[in-house]
Amino acid sequence: MKKQLLITFDYELFLGPKSGQANACLLEPTNSLLNILRPYGVKAIFFVDTTYLYTLEKYSKQYENCQRDLHVVTDQIQNIIREGHYVFPHLHPHWLDAQYLPEEHEFVLKDVKRYRFHNIDQQDRDLLFRESLRILSSIIHPVSPEYKINGYRAGGWSIQPFEDIKPYFKANGIEYDFSVMRGAYQFSNAQYFDFSDTPNKPVYAFSDDITKEEAKGEFIQISSSVIKLKPYVKMADRIVSKVLFKFAKDHTYGKGVGQQSKMLKDLSPRSLKGHPSKDRSHEPVSVELLSVVKLQSYLNFFREQHYMHFVSHPKMLSNHNLAILDQFLEMVFHDYSIETDFVKIVQLYKKDLS
Ligand SMILES: [Zn+2]
């Protein structure tokens, strides 16, 4: 089977008490990323936080800074499309409760009561889905009239129960979901997901339960990868990132504070096969977690598996992460013929899907 490399990003600000700003969280790191991806012809996917754009649009009428951000972010998304990448919606419903601080030109997203799609009422579900697709369409279709907005990733992986969102998938022609992180679970008052029992393949069809493969299912799941790291690799990584921070001033592009949540301790996952989303030995395959220490583990993973799906956030990237991503790409593209277009990746699983 041809090697499959899927590189995806959640294009969003920080989702807690300090959102950070568009320039540092989105524009600068995304431009650096596009420069790295371009020579390899990687077709990446950007999941754009449309609930942020909806909020920006709302405040644009009153505040020039919001109007300007909406303008430059729109330009960047159009540029992403022109460069041949995919752009799909990504919803963080608690933007509905965001406050804007004009002096700081930042948002406060302290309130996580409505973090999950599950926790908003039908009227708000209708509103957020409709506005998300309207805004994305108004950005994408002027530069690519035939483009189909047929993919989705839930904010904070929190897509369950799938029945909440299924009617919106059907009504809007969403066929591909990218919300499952294989094997992981987390239960908090914000993020809530249980992927402890997922099919033993990265791409599968499903209909009602996002973790259950169903032959001829209505939708296709394209799940993200989890890497197992040896304890000494994680320890060496912590030391190296401290050194890089202190002596090379390596830091994340974005400056903000993510959502703060409390774990719900009395819940247990559906299956013992899974693992907590952030335990000692597992972590998502991600550009922001990639370092010189982990490079060899990532190369081994790619050598051993057919499929590797990165989930990353421009706001979290540092120049070190980007330099190692570049090295990783140079090495794997030198050694293998690689598919990066998710549509063609899905075709490789076609015989399983229909
Ligand atoms: Zn997100």
- What share of residues are in beta strands? 15-25%
Category from helices, strands and their pairing: alpha/beta
- Main β-sheet description: 9 strands, mixed
CATH secondary-structure class: Alpha Beta
Number of strands: 16
Distance separating the two termini: 18 Å
- CA radius of gyration: 19 Å
Name the ligand types: zinc ion
Structural domain tally: 1
What do we call the CATH homologous superfamily?
A: Glycoside hydrolase/deacetylase
CATH architecture: Alpha-Beta Barrel
- Which fold name fills CATH's third level, the topology? TIM Barrel
Reading the helices and strands in chain order gives EHEHHEEEHEHEEEEEEHEEHEHEHH
Bin the helical content: 25-40%
Count of DSSP-assigned helices = 10
Low-pLDDT sequence parts = none
Mean pLDDT: 94
